Amino acid sequence: MSDGSSSGRNAGARRGIAGVGGYAPRFRLTAEAVTEAWGQFHGAGISSTAVPDADEDTLTMAYEAASRALSAADVDPASVAGLTIGTTTPPVEEEAMAPRLASTLGLDESIRSRQLTGSTRAGVDALAAGLDMGATRPDVDAARPVLVVASDAPRGAPDDEIEHAGGAGAAALVLAAEAPGTVTDLAEHVSPYPGTRFRGHGEAETTGLGVTSYDRTAFTETVAAAVDALDADPAAADAVALQSPNGKLPYRAAGPLGVETDAIHRGTVVGDLGDLGAASPLFGLAAAIDDGADRALLVGYGSGGGATAAEVSHDGIPVEMTREGDEELSYGEYLRMRGDITPGEPAGGGAYVSVPSWRRTIPQRHRLRAGRCPDCGALAFPPEGACNDCGGLVEYEPVELPGTGTVEAVTVIGQGGAPPEFVDQQARSGAYASAVVALDGPDAADGADGEEGGTNDGAVSIPAQVVGTDPTAVTVGDRVAATIRRIYTQEGVTRYGFKMQPIDRTTISLSSPGSIDI
Amino acid sequence: MPDAYVIGAGQTAFGAFPERSYRDLFREAYEHALDSVDRPPDTDEVDEAVVGSLGVGGRQLGLSGPAVTEHVGLHNVPCARIENACAAGGSAVRRAVQAIESGMADLALAGGYEVMTDMSDDVTKYWLGVSGETEWERLTGTTFSGVYAQMASAYLAEYDATVEDFGRVAVKNHENGAKNPKAHLDFTCTLEDAVEAPAVAAPLNLYHCCPTSDGAAVALLASGDVVDEYTDERVRVAGVGAASGRVGLADRESYTAIPASETAAETAYERAGVGPEDLSFAEVHDCFAIAELLAYEDLGFCDRGEAPRLLREGVTDPDGDLPVNTSGGLKSKGHPIGATGTGQVVEAFDQMTGRAGDRQLDDTRYGLIHNVGGSGGATVVHVFENEEGGR
């Protein structure tokens, strides 16, 4: 044990890991595409990186991963007592993600929430903070689950290694009592290594001094010290989910850590997803568990420098993960999608929806809360105004919908067809599908699928974009399920709300209590 | 209850006139309307003025109604502007008819005006989109082309129709509009042009969409008590119907019909004592090609799903049984939002008084005009009768 290390401690006594979720966007930028543009590629050991769609960010990816973890753990979102989030690239530098993430997931507003940032170590630290909610917060009912989410999308200067390695993705863990997984040990270590990776105030690009041997020493020495502080035997782990800023650095640490490179390989996803920043180790853990690893070492590292190490053992943690890419981007398409070369929203005015009035509709935007007419029983969405069915001016009873539905009408908005608020989305990711979708009623979980091509009883129709697929492939009759995406940003405030995606791309549906597994 | 008669109607050319003011456009339309009356009234004889405008393009000007009527010397005439999106003009005509039928006015003016092209395309799109459901529908990234395209997708899925049928609307209406000196787009197109044009909002392409136009149109209406003082050409307002519908498409019971058009048409036919089989011609609201197909069915020209057949068989061509949009329609004549409905009155009046030039029809006994706001949130249908018995 070296100076500066906290002692190993048993932090998992109260909660274990009940479920794991992972999510990576469907777009990929290959090393070849970058090489074609720049003549070289600096992402060592990386063949492709995941690229978020124009309407995705670390909050929407966090939703995707967290909803999968909750589904995998079979945990009612309303029972969750705590939420911890780790990211180095929150959607805005100041303004907490947790309230909106909790709202989209259907968590109770009484949750304890913490957001960790400023270091790629924030993801594993979010796990440590989540475990602390059981160990050191007696006011948090230990019987209730805690949700841990890491979501990140690091960027660098166009021609540097941080940018070439930068990927996007999110991983989430549900911590709960009597869970199949246990965090048997946890340890931390800090050591002053300035300059290896940093981002100044107001800057979008992360950078570093690029002193290769210094960077390598900072990494290997710090992670090895944290692992050394564990009581566990590193060599006993059959997978090591180690911070992966690129595809080579984690393997450099094999010797100092005393682990096999095979074990590192099993817990490393940087090769096809890129550097996932704060989400890197947790996503690696998700992949290792999914791959059947029984005992895993989890090591987060962040510049500064510091490391957090944990040992995880389990007998069958359920995993739900969406990580496959299905569309490769050219470098030009990549620059468009990231918004680097697009013009942003044109000036105008028009159909302005103020933030206060948007807030009024958050239960609908985030959780598809519909209403049931007390007079005739018809569903209404949004649950405002006279009943579409009987015409009664009623007070609707709240109804949570399962979030699945059927496309009834659809168009593809091509270039020039987007209203100005959507010009940026159009410029970044191209044509998009805008549809009318008949949402299944709350009884759909019993198997009453919406009939194809028309309005069906027990359903309610809504306008919605259909994302996550080629827009021209969306047709009347398609089955879709809700997710959360950015709707648009005005006055610097991003409005998040539901969009639909093909049902086979979703493993979950929106929140309680009508949730179904598809 | 006195009957209402159209004693005159006139319009500017529809087109792109970015340097002209809305008052200037209104003045020209007003002067054309006065000129079309056999014995034009003095300004102090006008009892009521109702004008339609979405808002002078993107400018939400207050008091633009009196601003145009006072500009042409209609001093002290009560005037109100109606906002009913693209149905503002038709709604203004209906209000003028009501003023006359109620006995409050012997002579009423219905007008409309819009200036759309002096703004950037982006700003125009902002304003075109505000006439839909703006809190939910527009926030899926749609403008009107998108919403009508969704209707088109549902229509294609439900009926034996193809995008070629949409193209047939463009071919016919451009053919008609090319003969209309007031039309915005004066060219003709082939079915191949209309099918292969660039997509705007699939399945609709550029030739399935009307242009954004500037223009003004004015109709002068008189009560049956005084009509003979002004004209011998008696174009009677035989029936009027109007209705509203859910502003957002997803809230409607059908995406392959505009229920408010059906209701407005039923009312107008009932009041006129005629049916669609009695019509000699019609001007329908073809902002998008699919809208003309829906109009055929909503207005009772044919059964559901039969609109493509009417187009394929040329039933609505100028030499067919029921010519539709001899003016060129919104597609070719143009669509200056607030002026479109009164512009339809101009075509009906011209056809019924023999002023339609190269577009003149032989039989003009009964004519129908159909004006839709948004994607079907407001509709107005007028049936006119040529009391001379048609030409």
What does this structure look like?
The complex is a heterodimer of chains A (518) and B (391). Chain A folds into two domains: 16-337, Peroxisomal Thiolase, Chain A, domain 1 (3-Layer(aba) Sandwich); 355-505, no CATH class. Chain A contains 15 helices and 21 strands. Chain A has helices spanning 31-38, 58-73, 98-105, 122-135, 161-165, 212-228, 249-252, 254-257, 261-266, 270-273, 280-290, 331-337, 355-360, 362-367, 423-429; strands at 16-23, 27-30, 48-51, 82-86, 112-116, 146-152, 169-176, 181-193, 239-242, 295-302, 304-314, 319-322, 327-329, 369-372, 379-380, 397-400, 404-413, 432-439, 460-466, 479-490, 493-502. In chain A, β10 and β11 (304-314) form a beta hairpin. In chain A, α12 runs antiparallel to α15 (423-429). Mean pLDDT of chain A is 90; it is low at 1-13, 445-456 and 508-518. Chain B has one domain (4-119, 212-386): Thiolase/Chalcone synthase (Peroxisomal Thiolase, Chain A, domain 1), CATH 3.40.47.10. In chain B, 35% of the residues lie in helices and 18% in strands. Chain B is built from 13 helices and eleven strands. Chain B has helices at 22-35, 64-71, 88-101, 121-129, 144-158, 163-177, 191-196, 227-230, 259-272, 289-298, 307-312, 329-332, 337-352, and strands at 4-11, 48-52, 79-82, 107-114, 199-202, 204-205, 215-223, 235-244, 281-283, 366-373, 378-386. Chain B has a nine-stranded mixed sheet with strand order 3-2-4-7-1-8-11-10-9, with helices on both faces. A two-stranded antiparallel sheet of chain B has the order 5-6. Chain B is globular and about 55 Å long. Chain B starts with a strand and ends in a 5-residue tail after the last strand. The mean pLDDT of chain B is 95.
